[in-house]
From TrEMBL, chain A:
One MF annotation (Gene Ontology) recorded for this entry: ATP binding
Domain ABC transporter: 9-250
Keyword Transmembrane set for record: no
UniProt keyword Zinc present: no
Short name of one Pfam family: ABC_tran
Domain of life: Bacteria
Family annotation (NCBIfam families): 3a0107s01c2
Protein name listed in UniProt: Phosphate ABC transporter ATP-binding protein PstB
Naturally occurring in which organism (per UniProt): Agrilactobacillus yilanensis
Alphabetic keyword roster: ATP-binding, Nucleotide-binding, Phosphate transport, Transport
PANTHER family in the cross-refs: ABC TRANSPORTER I FAMILY MEMBER 17 (PTHR43423)
TrEMBL record, chain B:
Top-level taxonomy: Bacteria, Bacillati, Bacillota, Bacilli, Lactobacillales
PANTHER family assigned to the protein according to its UniProt record, in alphabetical order: ABC TRANSPORTER PERMEASE PROTEIN YQGH-RELATED, PHOSPHATE TRANSPORT SYSTEM PERMEASE PROTEIN PST
Main localisation: membrane
Organism, scientific name: Agrilactobacillus yilanensis
Residues covered by the ABC transmembrane type-1 domain: 87-297
Location in the cell: Cell membrane
Membrane topology of this protein: Multi-pass membrane protein
Entry keyword annotation includes Transferase: no
Keyword Transmembrane: yes
Listed transmembrane segments: 20-45, 87-110, 130-151, 157-177, 219-241, 278-297
Keyword annotations: Cell membrane, Membrane, Phosphate transport, Transmembrane, Transmembrane helix, Transport
Described function: Part of the binding-protein-dependent transport system for phosphate; probably responsible for the translocation of the substrate across the membrane.
Recorded superkingdom: Bacteria
Protein name: Phosphate transport system permease protein
Length: 255, 306
């Protein structure tokens, strides 16, 4: 049934080198629209690195070389003509550590809109409310929008960061272990929120938490030492993995 | 066996004893420093206040009158100690030099940290450090032989005055403000920049909307620090400002600052005379101003923690 969904990103034979060290050894995989895809694998296997190739954040590291293609809406984002600024508006990113700017909650959420030159107070107010509601934190912060985002708890900060991304209205949201710094309750709230968001967004999530991957993702990809070992429906990966390494990892035998 | 352990635990260990000794030493040193600071304050204050209590100069006259001739008395019989020209001179050179230095310093700091953090930083960092270390008399000498003639040719007059003083102070405080601004920008966590870029900001937008904005308290501290240096600088300013205790009517007429009058006058007055006390009052004013600068810096720095 899920197979009819449209593919929004497809990566083909992506190799990435940090200097001479090959961190991604030819990754080919695609992501479907309005699905949650989980990337799992032991530490250092290249999950974050791969995630960062999808919005070209790796470009910021001088020693990196990348080959292969990543098509977003049938356009290669590694083509020389690609505007990375526009790309990152379409492919938003949430980091492992909550990283709100040291500004007010309001200013955090509208940051992306301000960049785009939106000045109209009404539009901004509306965007703030919508994005904070989507991020399931509107009720908590609606009376203190002008307070510093740094005064919030870690889980609340992470949701403000998610709202900040949502306000830009990206098509794809990349999340790199978004709940690893949070307590189980905040993590659960963020998981529920992601499930609601997937009707409107394509979500790609790196996680070390097997329960999290199995609870919320539609498809799961298992990485090992820069290789994509197995990529299938989440049920298949967790119940009938084809590869021995996947099974070992999921059952906690290594990693 | 048991007793041995017990004894060991009860006896003061060597580490405890040496910790105790360390504490005593640092306490004594701190006490000495505090004593010195307090006595300096007491000394300057007692001398400086004598102008108002023994020589009966009105405080308001001191701050607002423009005739500085504390050796002679006016019609009421009190010394003519009107410090306004020096106050104006000091504030004028301080504010003007800070206003000019700030954009240069911040632009240089942005270049060193954001635009060329490897090459540019490696070249400019030692240069700024070197400039910070140059003695002020050298700056004054260069000011005297380059800036003053330049001002004379370009703007007329003698060349001595606020403009020349501003120039010299600008060059003097620029490296200090720059290197403190660099520290402020480098203290901005990397992940703020990443978050901004990931939201589709250009590098330039990231610099002015996130990096400069979140380091604003640190940058303000740098500027105030530069101002406090400019305010307190004596020698270099004295060499180029013309040293006329007159209210300056333009930027190229000879003027004076609190510090320049002090350095010029200190040797020429008799301890305990009205003229000498009046100089101490200027010193007291300087001390209070540097206190104000420090308070401002502390206040800003407190707000700027990440
Ligand atoms: N900036 C970098 N410079 C050089 N090598 C890097 C850099 N970032 C990552 N690597 C290397 O690339 C490999 C993959 O790292 P990556 O961060 O993608 O792993 P990961 O799967 O996200 O691990 P974790 O689960 O610990 O976050 C590692 O061997 C790491 O040492
Ligand atoms: Mg990672």
């Amino acid at each position: 049934m899920a197979d009819e969904r449209k593919e929004i990103i497809s990566a083909t034979d992506v190799h990435l080198f940090y200097g001479r060290n090959e961190a991604l050894k030819g990754i080919t995989m695609d992501f479907r629209e309005n699905e949650i895809t989980a990337l799992i694998g032991p530490s250092g296997c290249g999950k974050s690195t791969f995630l960062r190739t999808l919005n070209r954040m790796n470009d910021l590291i001088p020693s990196v070389t990348i080959t292969g293609t990543v098509m977003l809406h049938d356009k290669n984002i590694y083509a020389p003509s690609t505007d990375t600024v526009a790309l990152r508006k379409e492919v938003g990113m949430v980091f492992q550590q909550p990283n709100p700017f040291p500004f007010s909650i309001y200013d955090n959420v509208i940051y992306g809109l301000r960049l785009a030159g939106v000045r109209d107070r009404r539009i901004l107010d509306e965007a703030v409310e919508t994005s904070l509601r989507q991020a399931a934190i509107w009720d908590t912060v609606k009376d203190k929008l002008s307070e510093s985002a740094l005064s919030l708890s870690g889980g609340q900060q992470q949701r403000v960061c998610i709202a900040r991304v949502l306000a830009v209205k990206p098509d794809v949201i990349l999340l790199d272990e978004p709940t690893s710094a949070l307590d189980p309750i905040s993590s659960g709230q963020i998981e529920n929120m992601l499930l609601e968001l997937k009707d409107e967004y394509t979500i790609i999530l790196v996680t070390h938490n097997m329960q999290q991957a199995s609870r919320i993702s539609d498809r799961t990809a298992f990485f090992l030492q820069g290789d994509l070992i197995e990529y299938a429906d989440t049920r298949t990966i967790f119940l009938n993995p084809k590869e021995k390494e996947t099974e070992d990892y999921i059952s906690g035998r290594f990693g | 066996m048991n007793d041995e352990i017990k004894e060991k635990l009860l006896k003061k260990s060597r580490a405890t004893r040496s910790e105790f000794r360390g504490r005593i030493i640092s306490f004594v040193c701190t006490a000495i420093i505090v004593t010195v600071v307090v006595s300096i304050f007491y000394f300057v204050a007692s001398k400086g206040l004598a102008t108002f209590f023994s020589n009966k100069v009105n405080l308001w006259d001191f701050l607002s009158k423009t005739i500085w001739n504390p050796g002679s008395t006016d019609s009421h019989g009190s010394p003519q100690a009107g410090a306004l020209p020096m106050i104006v001179g000091s504030f004028a050179v301080t504010i003007l030099s800070a206003v000019i230095a700030t954009p240069f310093a911040i632009a240089t700091a942005v270049f060193m940290t954001e635009i060329s953090p490897n090459k540019g930083y490696k070249i400019l960092q030692p240069v700024t450090e070197l400039l910070v270390g140059i003695p002020s008399v050298v700056y004054g000498f260069i000011g005297l032989s380059v800036v003053v003639p330049f001002v004379r040719h370009t703007f007329g007059g003698t060349g001595f005055g606020i403009l020349a003083g501003t120039f010299v102070l600008f060059v003097m405080i620029l490296p200090t403000v720059t290197s403190m601004s660099v520290d402020a920008l480098r203290a901005v966590p990397r992940y703020y920049r990443e978050a901004s870029l990931a939201l589709g900001a250009t590098r330039w937008q990231t610099i002015y909307k996130v990096v400069l904005r979140s380091s604003a308290p640190g940058l303000a501290t740098a500027v105030v620090f530069g101002m406090s240096r400019a305010f307190g600088e004596a020698l270099a300013v004295q060499m180029v400002i013309g040293n006329a205790a007159l209210l300056p009517h333009n930027l190229v007429s000879p003027a004076s600052t609190l510090t320049s009058v002090l350095t010029m006058g200190m040797g020429n007055t008799v301890m305990g005379s009205a003229a000498n006390n009046a100089l101490w009052s200027l010193a007291l004013l300087l001390l209070l101003m540097s206190l104000v600068f420090n308070l401002v810096i502390n206040k800003i720095a407190k707000r700027g923690k990440f």
